[in-house]
Amino acid sequence: MTALLEVSGLSKHFGGVQAVDRCSFTAAEGQVTGLIGPNGAGKSTAIDLISGFRPPDAGTVVFDGLQIQGWSAHRVAATGLLRTFQTAREWKNLTVMDNMLAAAPMRGMDTMWRAFASRGRLRAFDHANRAMARGLLEQFGLAKLTDDFAGTLSGGQKRLLEFARIVMSGARMVILDEPLAGVNPVLHTAMLDAVQQLRERNITCLVVEHNLSWIERACSQVFVMALGSTIGHGSMASLRRDPAVIDAYLGEVAESA
Amino acid sequence: MIDYIVSIFTEGAIFAIMALGLNIVWGWSGDFDLAFYGYVALGVYMTLVLTVGPAQSPTEYILGLSLPFPVAVILAMVSSMLLALVVGSIALRHLRGIYFSIVTLGAVYVLYIFAGQFVPLFNGYNGVSGLFNPMSDVLGLDFTSYPYFYLGLCLVVLAVVVLVVTRLSDSRFGLALRSLREDERAAAAFGRDIYRTKLKAYVLGAALGGLGGGLFAGYLSAFNISAWSPTETITLYAAILIGGRGSTRGVLVGILVMYMGLQEATRYLPEVAGHASYAAAFRVIITGVALVLFIRFRPQGLLPERRMRDGETGGRGDATVAAEPAVTAPAFGSGAT
Q: How far is CA B320 from CA B57, B60, B82, B331, in A?
C-alpha cells in the first residue's frame, strides 16, 4: 500500500499555543484512515494546514508526490485533495442540482468569455455534468430533491449531498471533518455506506471523528493525536490496548466505547 | 408631456445599466460595495473631459480632448475598470461583509473629496460642462429630434447589457460567483479561486457603472460633485433589493418601480413655498420606508432570483420553468439561476 498523503513534522502555533506540534501521519491510497484525539488535540487545525486554509509554520505535506504545504486552498483542491467542514456547508440558495454543478471541475468553463464563446462545447459540458449529477443524486438517495434549495435539506441529507459533491468533483482524496456531527444516529450506518461508496470509487478518505465505534467500523488504520502530535497508530483494536493512547484520550471510556 | 416621458425613460435606461452592474457585485458575488457610484461618477467625468475640448481659463481639467462620443464612453469604462481594479484588489483580498463596505466607502469618499477640492483634475466644485447632444452634428439631428435618438441609443445599449448579463448569469462563471456568495470557504474547498473570481466580478460591475456614467454624461451635458454624492448608491441598492437581488428581470423591475415609478408618483406633489426640494426629500423617505418594509416582509424582492429546474433541455439558458410560475417573463429572457 502506497501512501497518497504523507504529512510530516507539521507545526502551527497561535500566539503561545502550539496547536499542531510536529504532527506526522500517512493515508494509504484507496483506504479509509481515521484521525482521532481529544478536543484541542489539533485535528481541525491540522486539516486547515493540509487543505491550505491556514499556512503551516513548518513541516511538509506530500500529496500524490507533490509538495503542497503552504499552497492556497483552491490550488490544493485542484490537485484532487478535498476537505469537508464540521458543519455541512451546502450553498443554501442554490438548488441541489446547482450545488452539484458548482462542485464539478470547471475545466476552464467558468471564465467570463466562455459565456459568449461557442456554446456547443459549453452545452456538451453542461449535459455531461448534469447526467453525472443525476446519477449520483440517485445513488445517494437525493434524486427527488434535485430542484429543491439545498438550504431546505435535513442535516443528514446535507451530509449526503456533501458526499455526492465530493464524487462529482472528481476528487482523489477527501478529508472528512466530523462527518457525523449533526447527523441523526439512525443514519450513522447510512453514513458508513456513503464512506464505502467513496472508497469503491477509489477516493481515499481521512476521517476525523469522535464516534469511536463508527471509526472502528469505517477505518482500517487509525492515527491518534494529542497535544498537537500523533502519539500512536494502528487498528482501533490495537489502539484500545495502547497505554499512551488510553492515557491521552480513551481513558476509562475504552472499555465501554 | 412627451418630452417628460422621453427623459424619464432615458434616465431609467441609464440607471438600469448601472443597477445591472451593481447587481453583479452585490447580487451574484455578494459584496456590498459602497464605492459603486464612484465608478459611475468617474465614467461621467472621463466622458466629459474626453469630449468637450481644452479647458478655457478660469476652468481647469485634465485631458480636454475632443474625441468622438462612443470612443470617450469606452475609454471612460476602461478608467472605471482600472479604478475598480485598484480598489477591488485591496478591499477584496481579505475583507468581507461590513469591513469590505467600510473600505469601499472610504475609497469613494477619497474620490469625492478629491474631485471637489483638487481643481486641476475635474475643475473642482464647479465641475465640467459643455457636452451638448453628442453626435447630433454627425447624424444631422436638431434639438427636437435628438432626445428620441438618445432614448433609442440608451435602450439599445441597455438591451445589449441585458443580453450580456443574462448570458453571464446562466454561465458557469455566474454559478461560481453565486457559490462564493453562498459560502466562499466551501467554494474554495471545491477549487474556486475566491479572490480572482470576485475581483473579476467587481471590475465587470464597475465597467457597467462606467458605461452608465458615460451615457449619463451625454444626457446631463455637465457634471459636478453637487450633482452626485456617494449616497446615490443607496438608490441603486433600493432598486435591486426591491426588484429582486441577483435577478436580471428583478433589477429592471426595481428600476421601473423605485426610480421611474417614484419620480412619477411624486411629480404632482403641490409646491410648498420656501421648500423647493421637499419632493426630492419625500422620495428619499419613501425609498427608506420601502427598503425597511421589503427587508422585513419580502427580502427576495418582487421578482426573486430564479431557480432553474433541471429540465430535459439541459442548458441553463434553455430551461424555461420558473420557481414562481405566476410571474410572466418580460421580453429580456431569463433572470438568474
A: 59, 54, 37, 13
CA pair distance B160, A133, nearest whole angstrom: 33
Nearby residues of A48 by Cβ (< 8 Å), 6 or more positions away: A54
Report CB contact under 8 Å: A147, B307. Answer: yes
Return the sign of the alpha-carbon dihedral for residues A36, A37, A40, A46: negative
Q: Which three cell numbers stand for residue A117?
A: 464563446
Residue with cell string 432614448:
B151
Chain A residues within 8 A of B168 when measuring between CB atoms: 112, 115
Beta bridge partners of A12: A20
CA dist., res. A180 & res. A126, Å (int): 32
Q: Are B81 and B102 in contact (CB under 8 A)?
A: no
Distance (Å, whole) CA A207 – CA A27: 10
**pTM for the whole structure:** 0.90
Cell numbers found for residue A28: 494509504
User: Which secondary-structure segment (H or E) carries A78?
Assistant: helix A73-78
Closest to A44 (Cα-Cα) out of A208, A205, A210, A244? A208
For the beta sheet containing A32-36, the strands, ordered from the edge strand earlier in sequence to the opposite edge, are A81-83, A173-177, A204-208, A32-36, A221-226, A229-234
Dump pLDDT digits (tens) for B231-271: 778 889 999 999 999 999 999 999 999 888 887 787 777 77
Segment A142-172, tens digit of pLDDT: 999 999 999 999 888 999 999 999 999 999 9
All three cell numbers of A93: 440558495
The total of other beta-carbon atoms located within 10 Å of residue B121's CB is: 17
A93/B172 touch (CB, cutoff 8 Å), yes or no? no
SS3 A16: coil
Residue A14's Cβ-side half-sphere holds a number of Cα atoms within 13 Å equal to 9
Residue type at position B238? A
CB contact A109 to B (< 8 Å) = yes
**Reported ipTM:** 0.90
